[in-house]
Specification:
Largest sheet of chain B: 5 strands, parallel
Strand order of the largest sheet of chain B: 1-2-3-5-4
Oligomer: heterodimer
Radius of gyration of chain A: 19 Å
Structural class of chain B: alpha/beta
Shape of chain A: globular
Number of helices of chain A: 12
Distance between the termini of chain A: 24 Å
Helix content of chain A: 40-55%
Shape of chain B: globular
CATH architecture of the largest domain in chain A: 3-Layer(aba) Sandwich
Number of strands of chain A: 14
């Protein structure tokens, strides 16, 4: 059963980077400590506004992700709130030590936009489709990791990033995503959003996968299987209480992500379940392989992360429930 | 420019003091980076005790100049200088590298006066660049429209450290943005951990590489205070480009029996200790 703050039908589809830019246009003007940094990356509406009106608060360092992240740390040491923008694959890949050593180690107030992450940056192929960032980033201490599901949530997360004092990373997928939430939906850092209520199983999804999980909910409802759907928008700190409650209340869990199930959201949920309250878990996501070019729908089929795959996983995990 | 004998004398004595303290520190810890700590000691002395504006009683003063020691393993002379300057009690020296110490094996911001948590080479110049940019944002402008930076940033790099690609990412960006309140000092002691620089990866001569990336570049004898002070002052008066000072130095300078040997990371034996204390008296 969908919660009241979930749009039914879903709203307009929009890329989350556009939504972020809408929010940042306002946030940037309200807080003169914010500096926008780019690694040869499109600036979007906020960056273009800032370039024209506040040119000393915008810098592009070129195709140099390591420098991008560490310059941000230096700016934070100098009292600024830097937001870095580059492809997530290259921030996490080429600047991993910089995130860990220059930003997280001293808890600098750096906000890292990880753009075009996940499997569904469809045309770009395997070199650009991330499988690793949730796994790689959740193990870094002092880091808050966000993964917005829709444009409305993206704006709340941008605001939360400014308010939070300390390192933040925000993974943003490339494609347009449907608007799931009403503007006033309940958002709290570190607290999963209940998208639907149900007793038969729980789907815990993140980012671009939430919309597909919602479709799966609808498919299952037609067969009288009613699932709770949790939007885990904060991957670190993880809402362990919601996970444990889901195991207690519904007895079976399916996780969904567009990145690797090894150590990603699926791994994180499995850790919590194993230590706290046993229930069968099925992880839907990328199964230890690299990506490839295709269309979004084709890739969802090939990598088995479509709504019908999620629904099938729910049925399979229900069969394993304790009697 | 020739500086007053009294000033130069004073700096030479301070440099000796920080070298002595460093030897004691390394002996107490059991191990340390003598070579690279000592090659940079005169540069560190010139910065901490003369050229930089800073206040040991107010380590977070926003207008202070910043010292970023990117070659953060060469921490002992930095700690000695900061302790001598009054950033923390000299009782901390004996705790260097021990559990719970503010003086960690690589410089960390846990120690008052330390601006940069290093250990992963090649990153400090980027960090220094970020700090230098922050000093320019919103700063009042001079008649030509150039921002008057609120503070200066000095970054000490190793010559071996410049193998790391990220150094050159920072070099390119600093030149592009004409960050003239950024001074990089390469402690060109001709060695890196396992070998001579020219034997490991020969990218010498060093100075033309920085000049080629549009930095205002000079070379000095890194143990001659007259020259060091001269080029630091010159950097202040040369707007429009970041500044590279290539300091030709001697690894382990100050302990003749160890000078120019590749003493990178070592224990201080009783013999070395006696010898060093005699040389640094």
């Amino acid at each position: 059963m969908k919660q009241s703050y979930v749009r039914d039908p879903l709203g307009e589809a929009k890329p989350m980077y556009n939504a972020y830019n809408e929010a940042m246009t306002d946030l940037f003007k309200k807080n003169d400590k914010i500096v926008l940094l780019y690694g040869d990356f499109p600036r979007g509406a906020a960056g273009e506004m800032a370039t024209k009106e506040y040119p000393d608060r915008v810098y592009d360092v070129g195709i140099a992700e390591a420098n991008l992240i560490t310059v941000a740390a230096g700016l934070a040491a100098g009292g600024k709130i830097p937001f870095t923008h580059c492809h997530g694959i290259f921030a996490v890949g080429r600047a991993y030590n910089q995130i860990r050593q220059n930003v997280a180690f001293d808890k600098f107030n750096v906000k890292m936009m990880l753009l075009n992450t996940g499997m569904l940056w469809a045309f770009m192929g395997g070199s650009h489709q991330t499988i690793e960032e949730i796994t790689a980033l959740r193990v870094i201490p002092n880091l808050v990791l966000f993964s917005p599901a829709d444009p409305v949530e993206t704006k709340k997360i941008a605001q939360a990033a400014v308010s939070h004092v300390g390192p933040v990373a925000i993974r943003v997928a490339n494609p347009a995503v449907p608007t799931i939430y009403q503007d006033n939906f309940p958002f709290e850092v570190g607290k999963a959003v209940t998208v639907t209520e149900g007793k038969d199983a729980t789907i815990i999804a993140t980012g671009i996968s939430v919309a597909d999980a919602l479709k799966a909910h609808d498919l299952l409802a037609k067969e009288n299987i009613n699932v709770r759907l949790l939007d885990m928008h904060t991957l670190k700190p993880l809402d362990e209480a919601a996970i444990i409650k889901a195991a207690k209340d519904t007895g079976a869990i399916v996780t969904v992500e567009d990145t690797s199930i090894l150590g990603g959201l699926g791994g994180a949920v499995a850790e919590v379940i194993a230590e706290n309250y046993l229930a069968p878990v099925k992880r839907v996501g990328i199964k230890d392989r690299f990506g490839q070019s295709g269309t979004i729908d084709e890739l969802k089929e090939v990598y088995e992360i479509s709504a019908s795959h999620i629904a099938a996983a729910v049925k399979a995990v229900i069969k394993r429930k304790k009697k | 420019m020739v500086y007053q004998a009294e000033l130069l004398n004073d700096l030479q004595n301070k440099a000796k003091t920080i070298r002595r303290e460093s030897i004691r520190m390394i002996k107490a810890a059991g191990l340390g980076w003598v070579g690279g700590s000592f090659s940079q000691a005169d540069i560190v002395t010139a910065l901490v005790f003369h050229h930089m504006k800073h206040n040991p009683k107010d380590p977070n003063w926003e207008g202070r100049d910043r010292l970023i020691v990117s070659k953060a393993h060469c921490c002992e002379t930095v700690y000695a200088a900061l302790g001598e300057a009054g950033y923390f009690s000299k009782a901390e020296f004996d705790k260097y590298g021990k559990l719970g110490a503010i003086l960690q094996a690589h410089t960390e911001r846990t120690a008052p006066g330390v601006e940069y948590s290093g250990g992963s080479l090649g990153q400090g110049l980027s960090f220094a660049l970020g700090e230098a940019l922050s000093a320019r944002i919103g700063a009042p402008k001079d008649a030509s429209g150039r921002p008057i930076p609120r503070f200066r940033v000095f970054c000490i790099l190793g010559d071996g450290e410049c193998n790391e690609g990220q150094v050159w990412e920072a070099v390119m960006a600093a030149a592009h943005y004409k960050v003239d309140n950024l001074v990089a000092i390469v402690d060109h002691n001709k060695y890196q951990s396992g070998a001579k620089v020219i034997d490991r990866i020969d990218w010498t001569p060093v100075a033309p590489k920085f000049a080629a990336f549009n930095w205002d570049t000079v070379e000095v004898d890194g143990h001659d205070f007259n020259q060091i002070l001269g080029v630091l002052e010159r950097a202040d008066k040369t707007p429009g480009k970041p500044h590279a000072i290539i300091a030709n130095t001697i690894k382990c300078k100050g302990v003749p029996s160890l000078e120019n040997k590749n003493v990178h990371f070592c224990a201080i034996t009783d013999e070395i200790y006696q010898d060093a204390m005699k040389a640094l008296a």
